[in-house]
């Protein structure tokens, strides 16, 4: 008897949800099965550290799209764990033994919260922020006067700090490096971010690493630092990044490095298996070198490429990296790949804002990073991104001069 094969998506997050939607829009009439461990339908993650924590948004508003649209597309949402992938038979095997045959398979498994290797790091009292349920656990704790310690000075840690201060919490943020966002933005922009948080009352401690977590016997959390000092808090949030969820791919014999290795069309080393989103390591459109992106934009754009190619298409990932972070009334954006630049040109937009342009050896723009009050930088950052996407080679003097309109350089 002929077995009906489905388009199977493992991972019911942003990339998985958009891929299911795209499969229908691109004409697939057969079954679509989306498998995920969460009971929630696909949702967007940016609000988790912002609107959900401040109370400006609720869980329903985070949904990738209305449940009715999901139902209309006849996408089967299977809440389960995948035990393994049988690439020979083209089946996924669920933890209960059920097998689902696939025409093509998309791995959109995202990542797991990174854990610290220090005593007490696995304690139930420490919170992370990756899911709607994580946000639901943290939000009620952010009350006026509550003491919050945040471990990690990356985007999640800083956004949680901003949200907690807006809720009236006392916030201490510790970061092991000598600057904030050191791997993501130039030092000058990191310094502006640091100044903003300190101006809003966050006690930011750089070059400070936790050596142990515990409790003080009175229901309070404790964080011991390498310098011997001890912080006491009502809540401790650890935000030190994620580890890509490559376990299924590795067990199936697929090529894995810093993520699941894919080509420009998001095909893995198995012709019937694709990967997209946080877990995929793909060729950079700028350098051709393998990169991995943990961003809203990456999930949004790769999902449709993967869906098209699952149906036999020949799409490629040509969109350049781009992400943003909202903190208080400021916004930070990075477009392209600033690390590829050999020269940096700064455009100062008043005392509180700047955009750094990153150029390669030929003077071509390969990245832009900027930070400042949203009302000041939003339009300029949009134009900066456009310049990078169009691979412009503007004169450095024009980029540095705020009197020269960026629109004229596009």
Summarize the structure.
The chain has 410 residues and is α/β, with parallel strands linked by helices.
If you consult CATH, what is the topology of the largest domain? FAD/NAD(P)-binding domain
Biggest β-sheet strands, sense, barrel? 7 strands, mixed
- CATH architecture classification of the largest domain: 3-Layer(bba) Sandwich
State the end-to-end CA separation. Answer: 59 Å
Domain module count: 3
Mean pLDDT, rounded to whole units? 96
Question: Structural class of the helices, strands and pairings?
Answer: alpha/beta
| Rg from alpha-carbon coordinates | 22 Å
Molecular shape: globular
Keywords: Dioxygenase, FAD, Flavoprotein, Oxidoreductase
InterPro entries: FAD-oxidoreductase/Apoptosis, FAD/NAD-bd_sf, FAD/NAD-binding_dom, FAD/NAD-linked_Rdtase_dimer_sf, Reductase_C
Pfam family, one: Reductase_C
Domain Reductase C-terminal: 322-410
Structural overview:
With 410 residues, the protein is α/β, with parallel strands linked by helices. The chain is built from eleven helices and 25 strands. The chain folds into three domains: 176 residues, FAD/NAD(P)-binding domain (3-Layer(bba) Sandwich); 124 residues, FAD/NAD(P)-binding domain; 81 residues, Enolase-like, domain 1 (2-Layer Sandwich), CATH 3.30.390. The strands form six sheets. Strands 1, 2, 3, 4, 5, 6 and 18 form a seven-stranded mixed sheet that branches. A five-stranded parallel sheet has the order 8-15-9-10-11. The protein has a five-stranded antiparallel sheet with strand order 21-22-25-24-23, with helices on both faces. Helix 1 runs parallel beside helix 8. The radius of gyration is 22 Å and the shape is globular. This is 3-phenylpropionate/trans-cinnamate dioxygenase ferredoxin reductase subunit. Keywords: Dioxygenase, FAD, Flavoprotein, Oxidoreductase. It holds the Pfam family Pyr_redox_2.
